[in-house]
Every structure is written in C-alpha cells, then in structure tokens.
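Pipeline run #58 for the internal structure catalog. This entry was flagged by the ingest filter as a single-chain record with no existing model, so it goes straight to prediction. Upstream metadata was stripped on purpose; only the residue string is passed forward. Reviewer on rotation: M.T. Logging verbosity set to normal.
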Amino acid sequence: MPSRRLVSRAAREYEARDWGLIPLGTRDKKPLIQPPELQSQRSTKSEVSAWYRRWPCANVGILTGMISDLVVLDIDPRHGGDASLFELEQSHGPLPRTLEAHTGGGGHHIYLRHPGGSVPDGISLAPGLEIRGDGGFVVAPPSMHPSGRRYVWDAARHPDDTPICDMPDWLVSEIQKRDGQNESSVTHFRILASDIFESSGRAAAL
C-alpha cells in the first residue's frame, strides 16, 4: 500500500505543476469527494494537504481536460489497445515522445497537451483505446491498483525530465471524427462520481 508520505508528496508535486487533482479511494479509482467544482477551479496546496490528513492512504487522480491542460490516451492491452495504437501509428505516424505512465492493471497512460476546444471524455478511438478529456480523470502514480501493483511513471518519460507534447493533428482529427458517435463521451467522470455518491449516501463535499 502506498505510504502517506509517498502519495501525498506526489500530489503536492502535481499541484505545483498546475494539474487539477482529486483524492481517490485506497486501491481504487472512486472519488472521495464530489468533483464538479474541481472541474472549474483547481485544488489548492492546503486542500491537497487536508485530503491526505483525512485519508492518508488515498490514491491520487489527475483531472484531465482544460482544467489541467491535459488529454490522456488510455491504452488497455487486455482489450487490444497496443494493437489498435500500432495500427493508428502505421497509418498516421508515431505519437510524440511525451509523458507516459504504466497503470497498475498493465496498461499505459500517454499524456498530451490539450488542443483547445472540446475534447469529450470517454471517446473510444479503437478497441482498447480511450480518450480521457474534459470532465475526466486518470489514476496517477504512485497510486495502488486493486491488484496490488503500483501506477508508475515510465523511467524514460518521467515528468521531471519529459515535456508534455502537443497532440498531433491526426489524433485531433480522430477524436473529432468519433465525437458524437460515443455515448460514453457524456462525461465518464460525472457519471462515475454520481453513482458513487448516490449509492453511499455521502453528498457533502470536503
């Protein structure tokens, strides 16, 4: 289980990068607070510290979309994500060398700069490839997956020494092409959070 020091320190580093954050359950990706207000105003350093005093073993999530100037390509090899990305890159060219994390479930998160405009969350580009955009979030290192494996930054694509690259034009076009074809683009983040709080009965925000 991630120590309080390890995860809270990472959260403070992410906050200093002007990334929007949200605390998530221990070994889980369920938000511990109601998220809507965090999509318009990033959490402060004092708020992040308060989260980890209250939930010392919480995972940390990074909000995607305009709030953090981030879009994340979520690659799930179990559903053909690696093969799907290979086919797209064969057709359009490789993705830039940008920030990348390995998920606890064996997948990858590729971080790209938000291109502006609307990038709906939850768009499926191909089997095993989804976009985390406006209104969404990703579980971030060093959070712990239910399997007991930790989310980690790729050693060669770590935030300390790897800039976040612009999204290539071809990927912007692929997203635009599929926008409106995916019902899941109606904000995976808000649906997930709503389900959590309705079932738990906890409606109060921190």
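catalog note: The chain has a mean pLDDT of 86.
catalog note: The beta strands are 21-24, 59-63, 70-75, 100-102, 108-113, 124-126, 129-132, 137-139, 152-153, 165-166.
status: ready for reviewer M.T.
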